[in-house]
Write a structure and sequence with these properties.
Elements lengths: L2 E5 L1 E3 L7 E10 L10 E4 L5 E3 L5 E6 L4 E7 L2 E9 L7 E5 L3 E3 L8 H15 L5 E13 L2 E15 L2 E14 L4 E3 L4 H5 L20 H4 E11 L2 E10 L8 E7 L5 E8 L12 E13 L10 E13 L6 E16 L16 H6 L5 H5 L8 H12 L2 H4 L8 E3 L1 E2 L2 E2 L1
Parallel strand pairs: 1-8, 3-9, 14-22
Antiparallel strand pairs: 2-3, 3-6, 4-5, 4-7, 7-8, 10-15, 11-12, 11-21, 12-13, 15-16, 16-17, 17-18, 18-19, 19-20, 20-21, 23-24
Length: 413
């Protein structure tokens, strides 16, 4: 692995211990395009972060020197050595693409065998627990205009397949007047999983279940030669006779049977507004789960999740039909296997995100100085506009009744 040397930006707050702030952008070495959601870990610690959708990252180190590891599916892992000097210009880290090999002979049963092995390993390791924190950001747009912003830091308990429980540590919410608001969209992040040990396996429609052959069509798209691993890229979709429609891609390490990444899209997602004058047309839900790189364990904890909903909102007013999107991103950090005494709450369809956030004291200093908070310049503009109105401290009051979107029994109401 190539070794890069970074001169760190030194910050010495009065009365506080020294901290070293590292900031920069991760790009593709060949195309120079930014690489979003690259995992950045500090060797020997649970500290880390991820690049945002523009490839930008900020990471605060407690001491120096330190080595950072950059990992992203489709690129070779890279390292960066942080030294004890001053550097005032953001760093640009260029990651080399990993080579993709197309198998000469595609055996139809091979992708099913890989998914079966990954499922069995996930099933056998389901009882393994991880404890840490997660930063969650949700942004709603109507007619491409930001109308709702939610940011939360959870204490999180998880296993190799899903989040098991959360406890809010910090949170803030702001909104502008709009036709629709989402009361508990985070339920999808907190409840979605690759496997559920408590579910009836004989009826499961999940890809990772005993029913894969019966419910899915699989195709081996290629083998990714990444570092010392070979990752199989397998596309999947439900068989035509199955009413439940889903399609996507799963990446599996063929030597360890570990799931590296899982990405799915549900094209016929059921969505219904509580306002009888509103309807959702063409709703689509997508979920992207990426697991932390780990060489010495049979399974890995979550690194980040992205859950997005898009639809055409029929308002029943003069505006007619307008595009709507809800985008959420969750980054998991400070993850370890050491149990805590925190009371983690399981996800519940009756949860209301805004109520939970309102019950938590708003700390503007926490949000202003926390490098875990990953935002793009566009989202910074949204935050600035909300801050200007004092929206985060007071919560914007509704001037008039509006539709409130809730999720119950897997459906938006």
């Amino acid at each position: 692995m190539a070794s890069l040397f970074l001169l760190a930006l030194l910050a010495l707050p009065l009365g506080a211990a020294a901290q070293f702030s590292v900031r920069g952008t991760v790009v593709d070495k060949e195309t120079k395009e930014p690489l979003p959601f690259v995992s950045i870990q500090v060797v020997g610690t649970t500290n880390g972060t991820a690049s945002n959708v523009n490839g930008e990252f900020t990471l605060v180190l407690k001491d120096l020197p330190r080595t950072l590891v950059f990992s992203e599916l489709g690129h070779l892992r890279d390292t960066l050595r942080v030294t004890q000097a001053t550097y005032n210009t953001p760093l640009q880290v260029a990651m080399a693409p990993a080579s993709v090999v197309l198998p000469e002979v595609k055996v139809n049963s091979y992708p099913f065998q890989l998914v079966e092995k990954a499922f069995r390993q996930l099933q056998n390791s389901y009882s393994r627990k991880f404890y840490g924190k997660a930063y969650y950001r949700q942004l709603t747009r109507i007619s491409n205009e930001p109308t709702e912003l939610q940011e939360v830091v959870w204490n999180v308990k998880s296993n190799p397949a899903r989040i098991e429980g959360t406890a809010i540590a910090q949170g803030r919410y702001a909104a502008k007047q709009a036709a629709t608001a989402f009361s508990n969209f985070s339920i999808y992040t907190r409840s979605y999983g690759l496997y559920d040990a408590n579910a009836d396996s004989t009826k499961s429609l999940a890809l990772l279940s005993p029913n894969t052959v019966k419910n899915y069509l699989l195709e081996l798209k290629g083998l990714l030669d990444q570092d010392s691993s070979t990752i199989a890229e397998i596309s999947f979709e439900t068989r035509p006779e199955i009413k439940y429609r889903v399609e996507g891609t799963i990446w599996i390490d063929i030597e360890t049977n570990k799931i590296v990444r899982y990405k799915m899209m549900q094209p016929n997602f059921t969505a219904k507004s509580s306002n009888p004058n509103q309807k959702f047309k063409n709703p689509k839900l997508s979920v992207d789960m990426v697991f932390k790189p780990s060489d010495d364990a049979p399974v890995s904890p979550l690194d980040h999740m992205q859950v997005d909903l898009t639809a055409d909102l029929v308002t029943g007013t003069k505006t007619g039909t307008v595009p709507l999107s809800v985008n959420s991103f969750t980054y998991f950090y400070d993850t370890s296997t050491t149990p805590t005494k925190i009371a983690y709450a399981r996800p519940n369809v009756d949860d209301r995100d805004l109520e939970t956030i309102k019950a938590t004291k708003y700390d503007p200093e926490f949000w202003a100085n926390n490098p875990v908070v990953q935002r793009t310049p566009v989202e910074d503009e949204v935050v600035a506009s909300f801050e200007k109105k004092g929206a985060f401290g007071t919560m914007v009051k509704k001037a008039e009744p509006k539709a409130d979107v809730i999720i119950r029994n897997g459906k938006i109401e």
